[in-house]
Amino acid sequence: MPLDAYRINTEPYYEPQDTEIDIFTAAYSERLPVMLKGPTGCGKTRFVEHMAWRLGKPLITVAAHEDMTAADLAGRYLLEPSGTVWHDGPLTQAARHGGICYLDEIVEARQDTTVVIHPLTDARRILPLEKHNEIVPAHADFQLTISYNPGYQSAVKDLKESTKQRFIAIDFGYPPPSTESTIIARESGADSDLATLLVRIAERSRNLQGHGLDEGASTRMLIHTGRMVRAGLPLAAAVRAGIVLPITDNPDIRAALTDAIAACVP
Predict the structure, then answer these.
(1) Cα-based distances in Å from 51 to 1, 12, 32, 123, 134
(2) pTM for this entry
(3) 56 partner at 20 to 30 Å CA-CA among 31, 40, 82, 97?
(4) Cα separation of 231 and 257, whole Å?
């Protein structure tokens, strides 16, 4: 099958936080597009991978960026030894053959690029390929999922209302402490005491959000830190390299964060 390479054969580990699995399942059953909203590193991409595995559907992931064009999504003509040949883009592949297309951090793309998804996210469920003179009707198994971080919204980088209102939305946050500890232990190989300590460190950093930090330590950062400790790095060095230095370049904020972390380390 055309999309077999995009099938996920091993269950991606995911700890549910609320009713997100039920919401996504219901949306997919009706082939409604889904929008995942939440801070960076909180599990949005892992959730989509888990749902693709759970539903048994191929998953094509596209990392949006400011230089991405509509042709990057839809497709383009390329010169080959045999001549000029049309190549479907990832969005067209998913729409034509049936799969989940996941556009990660969609607000990073230009608005004139994202409008290409509009005909696929309403009752038409079509993808016009103007350069190929073709209209691709969406396969019955096609579904579109996008994600973005509301914390980075601005007048320049935000979704149009005409785009937002086409989607079912699921709100993500960092998991509750007990769940986050379980995730860190499972994903990093850290013992439960270290996982619990890393969650306490994260809570201290998240308390500084809006007071010098745009965001606190993500679950992903905690997993990386736990893996560094497992590799033999002392805890203090792992926390500095995995949390403090990546999260801010401001020396005063780094000092405040270091002090806050020190207060919860035995």
Answers:
(1) 20, 9, 14, 23, 31
(2) 0.91
(3) 40
(4) 24
Q: How far is CA 193 from each of CA 184, 202, 208, 265, rounded to the nearest angstrom?
A: 11, 14, 24, 11
SS3 state of residue 65: coil
What burial class does residue 242 get, using C-beta atoms within 10 Å of its C-beta: 0-12 exposed, 13-18 middle, 19+ buried? buried
Are 207 and 262 in contact, with CB atoms under 8 Å apart? no
CA atoms within 13 A on the CB side of 145: 27
* Residue tagged 């497709």 (tokens): 75
Instruction: Name residue 142's amino acid.
Output: F
pLDDT in tens, 246-262: 999 999 889 988 988 88
Name every residue whose Cβ is closer than 8 Å to that of residue 156 and which is 6 or more positions away in sequence.
Answer: none
Residues 34/184, Cβ–Cβ less than 8 Å: no
